[in-house]
Automatic annotation (TrEMBL):
This is 3-phosphoshikimate 1-carboxyvinyltransferase. It catalyses: 3-phosphoshikimate + phosphoenolpyruvate = 5-O-(1-carboxyvinyl)-3-phosphoshikimate + phosphate. Monomer. Residues 288-305 have a biased composition (Low complexity). It holds the Pfam family EPSP_synthase. Catalyzes the transfer of the enolpyruvyl moiety of phosphoenolpyruvate (PEP) to the 5-hydroxyl of shikimate-3-phosphate (S3P) to produce enolpyruvyl shikimate-3-phosphate and inorganic phosphate. Signal peptide: none annotated. Its EC number is 2.5.1.19. Belongs to the EPSP synthase family. InterPro entries: Enolpyruvate_Tfrase_dom (IPR001986), Enolpyruvate_Tfrase_sf (IPR036968), EPSP_synthase (IPR006264), EPSP_synthase_CS (IPR023193), RNA3'P_cycl/enolpyr_Trfase_a/b (IPR013792).
Length: 461
């Protein structure tokens, strides 16, 4: 029997809360995969524990990696990762995780036998063609153009042209494993603009942090030289995209929300919230936080990794560079302004920005995010449908949404198995009584503690 819909709490006063966030999904799944491909045992600290991260752990285990939890706390899990020969014959469940369905197949193509892949029903609809075609052209055999499929190597690498306008993860997935391909890789994108470029920068910076030579100097072309991937001790940054609904609560309620350990320099898409929320009426400041030792002298890294070894590709894995962090403080007035924004680079922030737009006093236009139709659900259709179901005025455009002010009323907000739809419903519920979010449990994709964190935020003073 499905769980009852979650009554989204309505804020009765401005929120005043400090919300520490668990590790980034994008950094965690890259760090685990790179550790599994490394030339020796390594450690990934403060890794996210969530459905997507658990799926990555299970996938890497199925391919022969040993992952042992060393320590687990509210800050995440520290994994000891011991690579093994990449083993075929297994099965990978990708769930609904883009990072698993796009990042693991290139690794599986290095295995000594076939590896099968499948996922949630909607995962079969998410775009896979360009990356599977690319792997074929590099030597792999694959029996389908979408999930489910079975992939067999060997794969030698080389040059490939693809259209990555559907997802930056096609590029990131190929780049992450490419140092292990005999010929490395040269990827050339041809087509409409690639979305989520900061996520590709995250891939490039994390590869460089483990000693891989990457040339990303030419627009739409990326080159990785074959070579070893260095074992490292890496620490994952907090998930800045998951900060979005909490920071939105400051705007909606006229309160203040502080996120500790916000990296001063980062490739995470969530960093764009500072500008986006300012445009929507917030005051955003960074105050010196509790920087880890070594932070001030060395300056920031931007690999998505912090901690020993993260930025010294040639050292013995104990380099002493820790990026500076700050407390990010966002204060709202209770009045939200509409926004006209191109979110192509930071598409995963769209559901929260759309929720704010639905509560804004002036119209909003969100552009550049046609690729969201291939996310956990068709997010443009889902957002328009659910905002309008509550009495709002949201219109889908070819590449985004137009949202005009209109008073909202209570009702069911469907989440379509999409964690960010569920949290968008929670944001609207702060201001609109009797919003019920269907399947709030889907937040476990990247933030299993969402409900407890949301409740704690509303209860703290
Ligand atoms: O590489 C990554 O970790 C991600 C890339 C982006 O995917 P798209 O380029 O498909 O939007 C982003 O939306 C997703 O949440 C995570
Ligand atoms: C698009 C997202 O996820 P995925 O990694 O599954 O693509 C997201 O988290 O917003």
């Amino acid at each position: 029997m499905p769980a009852p819909h979650w009554p989204a709490p309505t804020a009765t006063a401005p929120v005043t809360a400090t919300v520490p966030l668990p590790g980034s999904k994008s950094v965690t799944n890259r760090a685990l995969l790179l550790a599994a491909l490394a030339d020796g045992p390594g450690v990934v600290r403060q890794a996210l524990r969530s459905r997507d991260a658990d799926l990555m752990v299970a996938a890497l285990r199925a391919l022969g990696t040993t992952l042992t939890p060393m320590r687990e706390s509210s800050a995440g899990v520290d994994w000891q990762v011991t690579p093994g020969p990449i083993r075929g014959g297994g099965h990978v469940d990708v769930g609904l995780a883009g990072t698993v369905m796009r990042f693991v197949p290139p690794v599986a193509a290095l295995a000594d036998g076939p590896v099968s892949f499948d996922g949630d029903p909607h995962a079969r609809k998410r775009p896979m063609g360009p990356i599977l075609d690319a792997l074929r052209s590099l030597g792999a055999r694959i029996d389908n153009d979408a999930l489910p499929f079975t992939i067999s190597g060997p794969l030698s690498g080389g040059e490939v042209t693809l259209d990555a306008s559907g997802s930056s993860q096609f590029v990131s997935g190929l780049l992450l494993a490419a140092a292990r391909f005999e010929k490395g890789i040269t990827i050339r994108h041809v087509g409409p603009p690639v979305p989520s470029l900061p996520h590709i920068e995250m891939t490039v910076e994390m590869l460089r942090a483990v000693g891989v030579r990457v040339d990303a100097g030419e627009r739409d072309v990326w080159r990785v030289e074959p070579g070893p991937i260095a074992a490292r001790d890496m620490t994952v940054e907090p998930d800045l995209s998951n900060a979005a609904p909490f920071l939105a609560a400051a705007l909606v309620t006229g309160g203040t929300v502080t996120i500790p350990a916000w990296p001063l320099r980062t490739t995470q898409a969530g960093d764009a919230l500072r500008d986006l929320l300012t445009t929507m009426g917030a005051t955003v400041t960074r105050t010196p936080g509790l920087a880890a030792p070594g932070a001030d002298s060395a300056g920031p890294a931007a690999s998505g990794l912090t901690g020993p070894g993260a930025s010294d590709p040639t050292g013995p894995g104990t380099a002493d560079l820790v990026p500076g962090t700050a407390d990010l403080v966002v204060t709202g007035t209770g009045r939200v302004s509409g926004i006209d924004a191109d979110l192509r680079d930071v598409g995963e922030l769209t559901p929260t920005i759309a929720a704010l737009a639905a509560l804004a006093s002036t119209p909003s236009r969100i552009r550049g995010v046609a690729h969201l139709r291939g996310h956990e659900t068709d997010r443009l259709a889902a957002l328009a449908t659910e905002i309008n179901r509550l009495g709002g005025d949201a219109e889908e455009t070819e590449d985004g949404l137009i949202i005009r002010p209109r008073p909202l009323h209570g009702g069911t907000f469907h989440s379509y198995d999409d964690h960010r739809m569920a949290t968008a419903g929670a944001v609207i519920g702060l201001a609109v009584p009797e919003v019920r979010v269907e399947n709030i449990a889907t937040t476990a994709k990247t933030l299993p503690e969402f409900v407890q964190m949301w409740t704690a935020m509303l209860e703290s003073r």
